[in-house]
Structures are given as structure tokens and as C-alpha cells.
Design brief:
Elements lengths: L17 E6 L6 E11 L2 E5 L2 E2 L2 E2 L7 E8 L2 E13 L5 E4 L7 E3 L7 E2 L3 E7 L12 E8 L3 E6 L8 E6 L8 E15 L5 E10 L2 H23 L6
């Protein structure tokens, strides 16, 4: 059943309701909590997805999945970014629920936003050759069982191998894994001391480290579901 603000035959979220926007592919793949600010002709104006105060550079026309709850039911549909609104509080306009809307029993997010400190150790491509850049300290933007998006103070080239030491919050000490840069996702912060977004894939991960990452992602999934289900918690 539609709520009073539906304005049509499809259920839709209400003003001030929290949502989850999921980017299905690319460097910023992951799920981001946001909130409905206004409605315009059936479309939804929401906070722009961001990480640590940096707005993700997702252009108009990009397709996303939008997830929301209503009357103890969970829904998702494919939406499109219609317009971006810069300003002190950047927002985006996304298309409202349509024929792609479906009711779901549960949803697993395989990659979620995560802010974890990372030590980055570039690996020389051949013995006796220099590594593809200096060691540095960065943070994760999102993480999955097979890769992550990294915010790095160094711009490492595509195909560069990086040994990452990630401090997972599980009390089991640092987790080390070898990765490969698969994409330069753009500048994260401007200026001479700016940082970059780098998408990396896991190349070598010990089974116990893989299990720890999978367990951590599960805890993130559960936290997002609980946050989405709390109607009193507003941004």
C-alpha cells in the first residue's frame, strides 16, 4: 500500500525518511545512507552520497539502486540521478519509484562504506627495480570480499601492486594482503597536498584474513539494516 505522500500507485519513502543508495559497479561501488529532503513531481531530493565529507563524483544519468522500508516491508528499485545541486549541503535529485519497484525479504550489501586506516607498501614489479611510489598511509572508502576503494595521498599507477596493512576493528591485529590497482577513481581532495581515490583488487589474501574481512562486512551489513530500520534516528 502506498503511504499518503506516494503521489502515485507505487509505495515511496516519506520526507525525512532514511534510505540506502547502492552504487552497483565502478570505483564507488557500495551502499550509502542518505535521507529524503523534498519531493518534486514524484522524484526524490536527497543528500548526495559522500565519504568523510567528500561528495562522490557520480554524474547525472547514473543508475543506482534505492532501498527503503515502509509498513514493516522492505523495497528496492532502480533509480536514476536526474540532477545534482552543489552548495553548502550538496544534494541530488533521483527518480521516484516506478515499475522496477519490488518488495524484498532481505538484502545483502557485498561492498559497504568503511573508514579504516591502511598502511600502503608499494611492491617492486621485478627484483632490483624500484617500487611504483613511496610508502604512505591512507584510509578505506568502501570494502568487499574481493577489493576496496582506497583514499591515498599518493597516486599509484594502474597495475601497481600494493601490500596493504588494514586495521580491522576485531581485536585480532593488523591484516596484511596484496592488492593491484585497477582504476584511478579521481582526485579525492584538491590542492598540492590532495589525495586520490584508487580502486584495488585483492591478489593474495590468507584464508584467515579473508574470513576476517567477510565477518567485518557482515557486521557492516547488519549495522546498515539496523540504521535503516530505526525511524527515530534522523541525520
Amino acid at each position: 500500500m502506498s503511504n499518503p505522500e506516494s503521489g502515485g500507485r507505487y509505495p515511496r519513502p516519506s520526507i525525512n525518511q532514511r534510505l540506502v543508495l547502492s552504487i552497483q559497479s565502478g570505483a564507488f561501488e557500495g551502499s550509502y545512507v542518505t535521507k529524503v529532503l523534498e519531493t518534486h513531481d514524484g522524484n526524490l531530493k536527497v543528500y548526495a552520497p559522500s565519504f568523510r565529507g567528500t561528495i562522490l563524483p557520480i554524474p547525472p544519468g547514473e543508475m543506482l539502486s534505492l532501498h527503503f522500508s515502509l509498513d514493516n516491508a522492505h523495497y528496492e528499485y532502480e533509480c536514476q540521478i536526474l540532477e545534482r545541486f552543489p552548495g553548502p549541503i550538496p544534494t541530488i535529485l533521483v527518480s521516484g519509484p516506478d515499475a522496477s519497484l519490488r518488495r524484498v525479504q532481505r538484502r545483502s550489501f557485498f561492498r559497504l562504506g568503511a573508514n579504516l586506516p591502511v598502511s600502503i607498501e608499494p611492491v617492486a614489479p621485478l627484483p632490483g627495480t624500484p617500487p611504483p611510489g613511496p610508502a604512505s598511509e591512507g584510509v578505506t572508502v568502501n570494502v568487499s570480499g574481493g577489493g576496496l576503494l582506497l583514499e591515498s595521498p599518493e597516486l599509484y599507477p594502474e597495475a601497481a601492486m600494493l601490500d596493504l596493512v588494514i586495521n580491522l576493528p576485531d581485536g585480532e591485529g593488523p591484516a596484511r594482503l596484496r592488492t593491484e590497482v585497477v582504476r584511478d577513481a579521481g582526485r579525492a581532495t584538491p590542492g598540492a597536498r590532495g589525495t586520490w581515490f584508487l580502486a584495488v583488487e585483492f591478489l593474495q589474501v590468507e584464508p584467515d584474513v579473508q574470513e576476517r574481512i567477510t565477518r567485518y562486512i557482515y557486521l557492516l551489513q547488519r549495522a546498515v539494516r539496523e540504521e535503516r530500520a530505526d525511524p527515530e534516528d534522523e541525520r
